[in-house]
Amino acid sequence: MENGEKLKQIVREEYTKIAEQTKTENATSCCGEGVACTVDYEVFAEDYSKLKGYNKDADLGLGCGIPTEFALINEGDTVLDLGSGAGNDCFVARELTGVSGKVIGLDMTEIMIEKARINADKLGFNNVEFRLGDIEAMPLAAETVDVIVSNCVLNLVPDKEKAFKESYRVLKPGGHFSVSDVVLKGNLPEKLKNDAEMYAGCVSGAIQMDDYIGIIDEVGFKDVKVQKETLVNLPDDILSKYLSDNEKEEFADGTIGIYSITVYAKKPMCEPGSGCC
Predict the structure, then answer these.
(1) Theoretical Cys-Cys bridge with 179: which of 14, 42, 150, 220, CB 3.0 to 4.6 Å?
(2) Three-state SS at 134
(3) Cβ pair 68, 149 in contact under 8 A
(4) What is the phi/psi pair of residue 221, to 5°?
(5) Who contacts 135 (Cβ-Cβ below 8 Å, separation ≥6)?
(6) Domains, the chain, ranges and CATH?
């Protein structure tokens, strides 16, 4: 628990710095200004600029997918974005829910919440709100959300089982999530996995893909499927810093690697053994 809180504090501090930078500045450093970091965040980010609802002031270039593309959001839905940052995915989701829906952004970094609220005010949205809170203990009532999205955030959460249990709790029966995240295949070397700067940069916080899917299954979600999977091609100079020649070959042939994935899962309409079906 103590280590988990320390890791969350690292992430909170680094993303406070990121919030004060532009998308262009963030593209050259995953960890924020003045922080030693060897991963260029552009290897993860995808282009939102052609999507309806896109707002450039809310796009900090921090994602590793576009979960709203796969989230099956309907007009009138209540959508929750975990780790909402400056509001990028929330504003795209709001385009899909329409004025009859509601979008809630949750983030643990105060300056991100402030930035997102300013962006929402500029857009004149009264059905998009941003709440300060922890994904492991969400400030939401049970069974109040139709759809959850998240973009390259859950890998930064120390207790992923708690995060998915909380997601299960706040989703309505029959609700679902679509989340983009970073996962690993094979054993990432410890010297890379334990690097605090890399952790804040969405690599070392990642876990094995099979374990990630396994947590979702164990929590009780159904119809779990990977909607998109992309190998992250890191530059050779980065790999050379952390990997031996043999390990670099394993990266090249896919034996070990870093992947961005988008995962879908659904909460059952009724609990097993409840007799409601």
Answers:
(1) 150
(2) strand
(3) yes
(4) -70, 155
(5) 82, 83, 106, 108, 153, 154, 157, 163, 166
(6) 2-266 (3.40.50.150)
Which pLDDT does position 276 carry in this prediction? 61
Structure tokens at 17: 């710095």
pLDDT at 44: 63
CA distance 81 to 67: 10
Q: How far is CA 23 from CA 14, 116, 230, in A?
A: 15, 14, 22
User: How many helices (H) and strands (E) are present in the chain, helices listed first?
Assistant: 10, 7
Across the chain, which has 277 residues, the per-10-residue mean pLDDT values are 69 69 52 40 72 88 89 98 96 97 96 95 96 97 98 91 98 98 82 49 77 97 96 73 80 80 95 61
Q: Which residue has the tokens 């374990």?
A: 211
What single string gives the DSSP state of each residue in 206-275?
--BHHHHHHHHHHHT-EEEEEEEEEE----HHHHHHH--HHHHHHHHTTSSEEEEEEEEEE--SS-TTS-
Strand order from edge to edge, sheet including 128-132: 128-132, 102-107, 78-82, 145-151, 171-185, 257-266, 222-231
Contacts for 33 with CB less than 8 Å, ≥ 6 apart: 17, 20, 21, 25
- Quote the CA–CA distance of 247 and 238 in Å, as a whole number: 13
pTM of the predicted model over 0.90 = no
Q: Which residue has the tokens 């974005």?
A: 81
Q: Measured between alpha carbons, how far apart are the two ends of the chain, in Å?
A: 38
d(C-alpha 95, C-alpha 267), whole Å: 24
